[in-house]
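Now for one record:
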Amino acid sequence: MAIAAENLTEFETLVSSDKLTEYKKCRDQFLTTDKATLREPGLFKLEYSGTGVVSLSPKVYCVWNDDNETSKISCKGINQRQMLEKSKYLEVLRTEKDQYLENVGFRYKDGEMLQYRQKKKGLINFFVKRKLNDDGITTEPIVF
């Protein structure tokens, strides 16, 4: 589950006003915000804090922090050595054209070590479970 908010106060604006009191009463049962409960199993924890995010599809995202120029990148099925960066994710989002990448690796087969090269769609702008709105950024559920 990913929720983007500047801080906990902004996050709480996502909670409906009639449920806010109930949320504040029980939030410590599912959300950790301090170091004392950081290793407590079952609680949601802050994975990464950044200033921007591009999420092309589930498990294909880039979160960056302009303050210290770091980023967290995920691209399902692609080797981490691909040197993916924020600009490639933004390009796919803006142009709606897929990025092809090449996976290179080794495989042991019939007593031999073989090298393989596999070209595949790495960054795709395709949503299976949601409809992309005309602005190219926001989505809504598909209703059948």
